[in-house]
Design goal:
alpha/beta, 258 residues, single chain, 7-stranded mixed beta sheet, 5 helices
Length: 258
């Protein structure tokens, strides 16, 4: 589903039943890749093993709504995900308005991973650079409480279990300029960071795309992280959802090469 008109026209939703992927591109590798958002997203999905598979979990994936969430029509599902950049300048008011809308959605489980625009969600960054974005310093704790009070789980390098699935979320993106935004790491640190992802992840949520999936800009340049791509290939999560590059949303179903 897509919202119509205005800046939200590029926002992409992908609705998945894990184990029952939609029509997607087939490429060498493993799993499903989903690119969502005015920036992008990816998913990786392998079939569960065992004599009896659990019932499908319907997952709705969003990313990079940038304060335009109110114009969107969200499909029904069991789990609602947002992979970051729900704000533009990361102010407390923006966070609270998004959390109110997100929390009002009917999905039983709601999970958020922040992005590099969500300044107040990165406490260390916000403590140092809040004056670049606001006339007064606002409360990081209040931003977290806006989600917690509505039963929304915020994952910042955390793993939770949802309906028998291990879900891990990480908001970090590669620092691409001399100046910083939230959740930035230099490239060398990003490579080390992804190596520390836990094993046995079913669903991986990142704001950063992996290199080669959902990371293509309008001029043909790629902005995904090669370290993340390698780690995803090694971990083989059943679903990987990400955002950040607005021009290359989509879905990929990776199959293991011979």
């Amino acid at each position: 589903h897509r919202a119509r008109g205005g800046p939200v026209k590029d926002t992409l939703f992908q609705l998945f039943s894990i184990g029952q992927p939609p029509e997607v591109q087939t490429v060498p590798g493993s799993g499903i890749g989903v690119g969502t958002g005015a920036e992008s997203a990816s998913a990786a999905g392998a079939q569960p093993t065992g004599a009896k598979s659990p019932p499908p979990v319907r997952v709705v994936c969003l990313s990079d709504t940038h304060n335009c969430h109110g114009a969107l029509r969200v499909p029904d599902g069991d789990v609602l995900l947002h992979c970051g950049d729900f704000t533009n300048q990361g102010s407390l008011g923006e966070v609270q308005r998004f959390a109110e809308w997100f929390g009002a959605q009917p999905h039983p489980v709601k999970i958020v991973v922040p992005g590099n625009h969500d300044m107040i969600m990165d406490k260390a960054y916000y403590d140092d650079f809040w004056s670049d974005w606001s006339r007064q310093k606002e409360s990081h704790s209040a931003a977290l409480a806006a989600f917690a009070s509505r039963g929304i789980q915020v994952l910042i390098d955390e793993t939770i279990e949802v309906r028998g699935l291990r879900v891990h979320g990480s908001p970090w993106v590669t620092q691409y300029a001399s100046w910083r935004t939230a959740f930035n790491k230099p490239e060398a640190e990003m490579l080390r960071h992804w190596e520390q992802l836990p094993e046995s992840i079913d669903v991986l949520l990142t704001h950063m795309p992996p290199r080669g999936r959902g990371d293509l800009d309008a001029d043909g340049g790629r902005h995904g992280c090669p370290g993340l791509a390698r780690r995803v290939a090694a971990l083989r999560p059943r679903l990987h959802v990400f955002g950040h590059v607005h021009t290359d949303h989509g879905a990929w179903h990776d199959v293991e090469s011979d």
